[in-house]
């Protein structure tokens, strides 16, 4: 079975055109395929094939339906012949190239005519016989079928691109709304205190300064996360055992949590140490947020071509959220979350040519990171 691609369909078009030129009129000189424009007022040339000339001849790419022989063939849905095109203003360019006679064959499919095939020969006053007309009609039907497939494929691709675009715009809108929501929340407390001061109320300057400091830190953290997510990922790799990074992350940040280690990997892998450190930091944080004060299991093991990192928590992700957790700005943590943590993790892992997946069933969730050596 031939795969339906634009290149393959174009090959079939050329093959069918060559069939016409070789089997009709002992080698007809030129064949032009034209299809109807979207407004159905013109015919547009989409393919030109010649037998003798090394260069594609210059002909009108766009011709009107009204008043043309091709338009008559479409309207009547019948083959039109012109035994002599010499002196006919509608074929001035073809005549100047030495062509003498023509046959116009409608491209019909599903009771709809979508264009024509124009066949030209340099034989003067040539009358196409029934056999040649039959060949041209069979090939025209095949061409119409192929062109319909190509048109439908391009339309499907356009619709898919439009859906992707709409989805991206929706995610962008959601992201902007999330950022605005976080910034508004961060600015609310100092704004309220400032209004109280303007009304003359007695406010401790330290309380006001502390509120401003906290709000600025939150806003800067949000901005830094956005910038980190949007930056092109540059990975500088060094050889290290992943277990060492895991222990460093936990010792520096999560020594108070109940973390069970199951570190069995012995391989040295080439990674960007700082970025993988940030990944593990984020993943352990997410595990604790999902099930506070519950045990977290962190494990590693060697596999063919690399290692696996697994981080398990005692919370289960609702089914409705499973498809959204890697979407930028999606969060279930309210003010505590920006929705950029897991997208950042995924970006880093993919930058290392690895993969990130998760399984959430029976009251627990396991995130699995695969990293190559």
The total tally of domains equals 3
If strands are numbered along the chain, what order do they take across the biggest sheet? 3-2-1-6-5-4
The second-level CATH architecture of the largest domain is: 2-Layer Sandwich
Total beta strands:
13
| CATH C-level class of the largest domain | Alpha Beta
Query: Termini distance?
Result: 39 Å
Low-confidence stretches: none
Strand proportion, as a percent range, falls in 15-25%
Q: Which class of secondary structure composition applies to the elements?
A: alpha+beta
Helix content: 40-55%
- What Rg do the Cα atoms give? 35 Å
Tally of DSSP helical segments = 8
Task: Please name the fourth-level CATH homologous superfamily of the largest domain.
Answer: GAF domain
Largest sheet: 6 strands, antiparallel
> How would the global form be characterised?
elongated
């Amino acid at each position: 079975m031939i795969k339906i691609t634009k290149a393959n369909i174009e090959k079939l078009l050329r093959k069918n055109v060559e069939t016409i030129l070789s089997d009709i009129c002992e080698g007809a000189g030129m064949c032009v395929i034209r299809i109807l424009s979207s407004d159905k007022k013109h015919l547009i040339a989409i393919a030109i094939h010649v037998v003798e000339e090394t260069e594609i001849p210059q002909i009108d790419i766009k011709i009107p339906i009204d008043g043309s022989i091709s338009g008559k063939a479409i309207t009547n849905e019948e083959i039109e012949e012109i035994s002599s095109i010499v002196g006919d203003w509608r074929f001035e360019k073809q005549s100047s190239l030495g062509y003498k006679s023509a046959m116009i064959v409608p491209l019909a499919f599903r009771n709809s005519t979508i264009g024509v095939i124009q066949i030209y020969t340099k034989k003067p006053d040539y009358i196409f016989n029934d056999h040649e007309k039959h060949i041209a009609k069979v090939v025209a039907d095949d061409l119409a079928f192929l062109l319909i497939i190509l048109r439908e494929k391009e339309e499907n691709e356009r619709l898919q691109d439009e859906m992707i675009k709409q989805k991206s715009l929706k995610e962008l809108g959601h992201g902007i709304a999330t950022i605005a929501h976080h910034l508004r929340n961060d600015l609310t407390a100092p704004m309220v205190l400032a209004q109280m001061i303007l009304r003359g109320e007695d406010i401790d300057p330290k309380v006001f300064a502390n509120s401003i400091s906290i709000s600025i830190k939150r806003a800067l953290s949000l901005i830094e996360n956005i910038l980190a997510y949007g930056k092109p990922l540059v990975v500088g790799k060094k050889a290290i055992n992943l277990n060492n990074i895991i222990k460093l992350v936990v010792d520096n940040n999560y020594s108070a949590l109940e973390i069970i280690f199951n570190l069995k990997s012995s391989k040295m892998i080439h990674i960007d140490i700082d970025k993988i450190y940030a990944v593990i930091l984020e993943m352990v944080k997410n595990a604790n947020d999902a099930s506070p004060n519950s045990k977290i299991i962190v494990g590693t093991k060697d596999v063919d071509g690399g290692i696996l990192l697994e981080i398990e928590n005692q919370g289960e992700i609702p089914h409705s959220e499973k498809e959204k957790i890697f979407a930028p700005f999606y969060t279930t943590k309210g003010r505590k979350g920006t929705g950029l943590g897991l997208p950042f993790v995924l970006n880093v892992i993919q930058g290392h040519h690895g993969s990130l997946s998760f399984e959430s069933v029976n009251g627990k969730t396991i995130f699995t990171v695969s990293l190559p050596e």
